[in-house]
């Protein structure tokens, strides 16, 4: 039998996509709003139903104002593995906690939500009638009720093997919905300025949430591209800033990425993207700059760095330099020096990114970035590290059968000192870390092998 519900137990109904990203997002947002996610929390892996202990309803509502991974949250009144267990659990829930929502002057309705099974209207009515023992004194109002209650039934994850009876049944008072509509309203398809690698809107908001972006933060993207990550951060009230080595992208010039459009129009730039969503007041600036040579005085400037570095697949990895590599130790170039484009190894790129984050983030600030990996060779030791940064989460998104990218979230936990800059070279992790340099070759090697295999099977 399920234990009696306590005051602070809530039920989260999660979306069934980006499964690995859900838990880090909820943890980050709870931390942002004063809650805490402990090991005792009941989570069910791939299940859409999570039971959480949250200190207050205000925190629960704030959580739902940000999350794109959760659909809804309910104050949990009862839970069981059968109708009998559910009813027993409900009878044990303190009546004084129910009364404010069931009194005679209130209006309400009860909804039935099933996961992985469809019920008939007759079956739904039968479940609602079975709750007559609850002390409802208000009137039913199906159109605009003051309070909404839900019965949620979980029939597992296998659509090919749907059980007769649910695995779990929950009853709760609806509190709020998440921000799933942002995925559509901020869709890249509707955006003025896009490029080959513009970040999906849903993932952009997930990254901002992993980074604990909040109002009046300053958020920086050193590989800004078309600015999709700036848009998501600005939506949450942060002031945004970025750099990119590509002059045409920063200024919205050159060939368009959209089908049937040859050249970019005058409103195709990052500022116009923020203006499109009423967020222009959060736009600080975007500069043409080389991420390998940050043009910043030493100091802490940013509350979060959120970025998607180029992997060398659809966008090249480049840095400025000269025909002859400048010897180490010489920082200034002759005034006659004209920068040219040189290759920028992935290991160097991530080394520079982590060092820059360690130097320029406020203590407690977060770095969120994508790390491409060749799946057959991936180990956790390949994730770059830095003595000033603590790994918070590491989530996989598959790109192909042999490659994926991992969303890495790190938090600055130590003030940067000069000796921290090269400490990674002393680590056993440095060699696997260098393995990222061959990602592009392995990516295309895998595609070539797959095509050859398909052609061979087609000839047989």
Automatic annotation (TrEMBL):
Which GO cellular component terms, listed alphabetically, does the Swiss-Prot or TrEMBL entry include? cytoplasm; tRNA methyltransferase complex
Q: Which PROSITE patterns match?
A: N6_MTASE, SAM_MT_TRM11
MF terms (GO), sorted A to Z = tRNA (guanine(10)-N2)-methyltransferase activity; tRNA binding
Top-level EC class, please?
transferase
Q: Where is the Ribosomal RNA large subunit methyltransferase K/L-like methyltransferase domain?
A: 190-320
Q: Which residues form the tRNA (guanine(10)-N(2))-methyltransferase TRMT11 N-terminal domain?
A: 9-180
Which Enzyme Commission numbers does its entry carry? 2.1.1.214
Note the superkingdom of the native organism.
Eukaryota
- What SUPFAM superfamilies does the record tag this protein with? S-adenosyl-L-methionine-dependent methyltransferases
> Which reactions appear under catalytic activity for this entry?
guanosine(10) in tRNA + S-adenosyl-L-methionine = N(2)-methylguanosine(10) in tRNA + S-adenosyl-L-homocysteine + H(+)
Q: Is tRNA-binding tagged as a keyword?
A: yes
Its GO biological process annotations read:
methylation; tRNA processing
Q: Where in the cell is it found?
A: Cytoplasm
In terms of InterPro entries, this protein maps to: DNA_methylase_N6_adenine_CS, RlmKL-like_Mtase, SAM-dependent_MTases_sf, TRMT11, TRMT11_N
Its keywords, alphabetically, are: Cytoplasm, Methyltransferase, RNA-binding, S-adenosyl-L-methionine, Transferase, tRNA processing, tRNA-binding
This protein's assembly is summarised as:
Part of the heterodimeric TRMT11-TRM112 methyltransferase complex; this complex forms an active tRNA methyltransferase, where TRMT112 acts as an activator of the catalytic subunit TRMT11.
Q: Per its database record, what is this protein's job?
A: Catalytic subunit of the TRMT11-TRM112 methyltransferase complex, that specifically mediates the S-adenosyl-L-methionine-dependent N(2)-methylation of guanosine nucleotide at position 10 (m2G10) in tRNAs. This is one of the major tRNA (guanine-N(2))-methyltransferases.
Indicate the family of this protein. Belongs to the class I-like SAM-binding methyltransferase superfamily. TRM11 methyltransferase family.
| Name listed for the protein in its UniProt record | tRNA (guanine(10)-N(2))-methyltransferase TRMT11
Instruction: Please tell me the species this chain comes from.
Output: Molossus molossus
């Amino acid at each position: 039998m399920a234990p009696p519900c306590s005051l602070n137990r809530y039920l989260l109904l999660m979306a069934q996509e980006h499964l690995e990203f859900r838990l880090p997002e909820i943890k980050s947002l709870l931390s942002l709003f004063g809650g805490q996610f402990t090991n005792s929390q009941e989570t069910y892996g791939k299940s859409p139903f999570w039971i959480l202990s949250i200190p207050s309803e205000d925190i629960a509502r704030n959580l739902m104002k940000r999350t794109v991974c959760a659909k809804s949250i309910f104050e949990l009144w009862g839970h069981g593995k059968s109708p009998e267990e559910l009813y027993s659990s409900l009878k044990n829930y303190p009546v004084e906690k129910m009364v404010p929502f069931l009194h005679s002057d209130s209006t309400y309705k009860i909804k039935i939500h099933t996961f992985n099974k469809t019920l008939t209207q007759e079956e739904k009515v039968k479940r609602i009638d079975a709750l007559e023992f609850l002390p409802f004194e208000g009137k039913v109002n199906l159109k605009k009720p003051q309070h909404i209650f839900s019965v949620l039934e979980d029939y597992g994850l296998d659509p090919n093997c749907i059980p007769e009876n649910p695995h779990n049944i929950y009853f709760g008072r609806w509190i709020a919905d998440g921000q799933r509509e942002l995925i559509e309203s901020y869709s890249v398809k509707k955006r003025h300025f896009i490029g080959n690698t513009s970040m999906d809107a849903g993932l952009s908001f997930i990254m901002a949430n992993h980074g604990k972006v909040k109002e009046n933060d300053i958020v920086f993207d050193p590989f800004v591209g078309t600015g999709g990550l700036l848009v998501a951060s600005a939506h949450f009230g942060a002031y945004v800033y970025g750099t990119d080595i590509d002059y045409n992208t920063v200024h919205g010039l050159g060939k368009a990425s959209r089908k049937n459009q040859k050249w970019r129009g005058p409103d195709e730039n990052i500022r116009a993207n923020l203006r499109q969503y009423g967020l222009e007041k959060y736009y600080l600036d975007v500069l043409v700059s080389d991420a390998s040579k940050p043009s910043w005085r030493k100091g802490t400037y940013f509350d979060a760095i959120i970025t998607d570095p180029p992997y060398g697949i659809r966008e090249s990895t480049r840095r400025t330099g000269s025909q002859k590599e400048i010897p180490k130790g010489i920082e200034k170039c002759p005034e006659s020096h004209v920068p040219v484009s040189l290759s920028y190894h992935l290991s160097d790129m991530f080394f520079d990114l982590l060092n820059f984050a360690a130097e320029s983030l406020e203590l407690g600030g977060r770095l969120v970035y994508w790390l491409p990996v060749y799946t057959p060779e991936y180990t956790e030791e390949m994730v770059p590290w830095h003595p000033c940064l603590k790994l918070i989460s590491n989530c996989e998104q598959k790109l192909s059968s042999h490659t994926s990218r991992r969303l890495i979230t790190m938090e600055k936990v130590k003030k940067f000192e000069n000796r921290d800059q090269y400490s990674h070279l002393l680590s056993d992790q440095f060699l696997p870390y260098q393995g990222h340099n061959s990602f592009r070759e392995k990516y295309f090697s895998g595609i070539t092998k797959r095509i050859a295999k398909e052609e061979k099977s087609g000839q047989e």
